[in-house]
Amino acid sequence: MIIPTFERDVTDDDVFQAFDLSWPGLEKVEAAYGKGDLDLAKKELVDYMLLRKSPKYYYDYRALPLRPMDIDQTPYFFQAALGLNGSLKEFCLYGADRMLENTYVLPGRGRGEVYLGKDMEDMIHFDFIKDQGKKHRHSLDMFVRGQHFEYMAVAYHETGDLKYVRKFEQVLQKFFETYPLQIVDTSPSANRFQFDEDRDVMSVGWLTLVYISLFYTRLAYEIPYTLAFEIIKRIWFMGIQFKRFETDSYRAYNHHLWERGLVPFILAVMLPEIPQFAAMKERGAAIVERHTLEDFNKAGGYSEHSIAYWSGAALGEMTTRGIILARLNGEKLLDEEALERIRTSFRLLATLASPGERYPSIGDNRGPMIDPILGLGVLSLDEEWCRNLLAKRQGKEYSHDSLPPLYYANDESGFTVLRNGYERDSDQIIMSTKCDCGYTGHNHMDMLSLCVTLSGQELIGEPYTGKLYHNIRMGSGQRGYMYNMGSHNTVLCYGNPIQPDRMYANKWGVYRPDSPIVAFSQSGQGAYVKAYHKAYTFCRHTRELAYAKDKAILVRDSIERGNRMKESHIQRWHLMDGCSVVDKGKNYIIIENGGVRALMLWQGADSLKVWKNPVLYPEIFPDEDSVFPIIDASFACPEEKTADNATAYISLAIINVTGLDVVQDKLEAAGRRLEEAMSSSCWSTVDEPDDSLPMVGIAASLYDVLRG
């Protein structure tokens, strides 16, 4: 078949001939078209979309009387949920009102707004060839996915005010006029269809689904049927482009999962009246299943070591859409083994759930909201841990016996988690420990990086990832910094990352080296884990982590062959938004956030430095006051260690001192205790620690010393 390449060249006849007009329910369309009455045929086709009983969609608001859309329970059914930050309905209502003023609000409130001009003469543009490195493509990429159409639908259903319908008509016609899709790359391996107005295949797939979703709201039936037909025309034109990929080779990343698997499968299920769409179902399902089996490992982890892209994109926006739609319509998408991979993945996401509203930022993008992810686990697979944890977080009845474990360490899934509970005021420590990441654009060089929450308050983490990801230019210094080791909470051997920042500033993809776990033990008092990486090739960083439940955290970093050069090593810590340094001494720093205070007490540190990174301002943040402190603890081998292959050590205790009177004599006593303990041999060969968990005992004793 000949697939059209320009949206404006598609005729009304092309659309009607694409449908199987003998399909049950299309009799009136067939009769009108057979008589050559295209106007009536358009009306009958729109009426058919209103009245058809199957297939079933994720939601259905077609019937009168008009009723509000319940979107906060299932936000991931909507493109507007990208960067979800609070109530999706409130955001959509805000976005719709701003669109009345010709201002587009990017999904994820706070990511930016774009004024489109008095007569929408300033629509968003980005040339993939000419504009790279000059500005970010994010605004156009989001706009051409069509979330603003969802804003209008939600607002109309919420208020019944026809002003949203009229604005929808205006914006839709302007959208058709400004962004007619022209297929430039017609190859089966195309990543972008169009370059001068940057339109990638992924975004075209999202826009196609947004157009389909409009026919499950009243919005598509309150506008002239001729305009509604124009939406159908574009569904067919964009959808048929996915036929081009039937000979494309498999590629192991989530764009391929979406573009070559899920979009064709969803088109086939939702529009079986179009034979060319229906024919894509089997291959689409096979690609989704292969991605599931190859990208989601048996431990629940995902090939992209990024919590946001694993949970929010691969699961939330993509895979669970297919699973739920298949179940609603009695279709087969995944076999039992593949479904078990997804179920295990949701169990892991329950295990990683922070005390607060969002997951920590590991990998690209800001950590997503937790409750909607847990809700997807319940909705798609009725996952038990997700159901009980969600109920607990929402103050509902739950089973105490069906919550995730407090201590978890697995380098296949990529995470170590130590915590004292799942209450909102709990402690949580997450360490990045991943092997076999493979190729991905969303990994970071974050081997053994830590995120620390005490009493429900984030203290140490990655405060800039979301802001940087959505604002940095390709090729910029800020982009290299974001992906490289210096922006994470790990050790910079000899004061430098493995590669300079510029190596990660351009293009996509970080081959993250392995960080295997070599020991993991737990008891009623706490847990211990030991992991390492040797990515530098001339030395090895080993991190031991002990958590004394309800008391303290002990971090022990060692650099084997740590005396090759004179430069000191740096143990780095990024304080989170709102966290400040309230006291500093020779071997300690006290930090505070939201009323929670923590003592950071070092043994083996030569110096402590508190600073702010000037690379972040003024391009990303307006000034120095807008960024947060970084703590660098420098350490090296003692001067007497002149022998070959000496090891450098540093130990850090993080102790919750909220409400404690931390006076100087207690600080000195705790410092002596830490030095005595770390100079002993109890920690140095803990490859298979016994039940005594000596480092956990040290951490607990430090807390007890401070309490007096």
UniProtKB/TrEMBL annotation:
Keyword Lyase: yes
InterPro entries with a match to the protein in the record: Chondroitin_lyas, Hepar_II_III_C, Hepar_II_III_N
Localization annotation: Periplasm
Heparin-sulfate lyase N-terminal domain location: 15-365
One GO location term (cellular component): periplasmic space
Transmembrane segments: none
Keywords: Lyase, Periplasm, Signal
Superkingdom in the source lineage: Bacteria
Chief place of localization: periplasm
Gene Ontology MF annotations: lyase activity
Domain Heparinase II/III-like C-terminal span(s) in chain numbering: 411-602
Pfam families named among the record's database cross-references: Hepar_II_III_C, Hepar_II_III_N
Cross-referenced SUPFAM superfamilies: Chondroitin AC/alginate lyase (SSF48230)
The protein's name: Heparinase II/III family protein
Lineage: Bacteria, Pseudomonadati, Spirochaetota, Spirochaetia, Spirochaetales
